[in-house]
Design a protein that fits this description.
single chain; about 240 residues; alpha/beta; Rossmann fold; six-stranded mixed sheet; 12 strands; binds glutamine
Amino acid sequence: MRDSIVHIGLLLPEVLGTYGDTGNAQVLCRRLRWRGFDAEVVPVGLGEPVPSTLDLYLLGGGEDGAQALAAAHLRKHRRALTPRAVVFGVCAGLQVLGTRFRGSDGVDHDGLGLLDLTTEPGERRAVSELVATSSDLLGNAPLTGFENHLGASKLGAGSEPLGQVVRGTGNGDGTEGAVTDHIAGTYLHGPALARNPALADLLLTWAAGQALPALEVPEVERLRGERLARRRRPS
Ligand code: GLN
């Protein structure tokens, strides 16, 4: 983090705010403040340049049209997000971070190419609770959230999945999400970082360049327990 205030960029909330993923910015701010850091959310709107100076960049989910608009704008500002930015995308945000995505109208769009992933419409829309295992990167903490998407994503050799699907659809091939360096994406809404504190802290650790003090929030753990218990029940 470059100065005493951590700047969390919330990219295009007016078009990528449909699924409540803007809450991820609030979660990061709160987890930083609980640890004694000063933090603020910097919304970056459609039509505004993306500053290269922010500590972390967030992209949420959105409808196909909104997603295409967002991708067209962000492609012009891709340099702000390379080479060492910390970026987290959810659903449409994940797809935009990939190299290419095809909407339900069959039109192909270039993504930002920050993740090695392409997306095409799947057989049916995935609307469900989503539970996945996670890798060592996330301390093997199960991932939980809900999903609502048509796109199915295929990872190339340049990205690793965040986990393996236990319930729901995720990327569509049994894997969930993607990560390359300090760029990560997921199909989890919730918001994802409220339901998965290990994921929130992974992003903050990347932004800080160092491990942060542990933080246990009993309410979050209780909510996780409830949600994860439901994974055994049919949707
Ligand atoms: N429009 C994309 C899809 O349906 C993303 C949806 C979303 O962000 N929830 O695959």
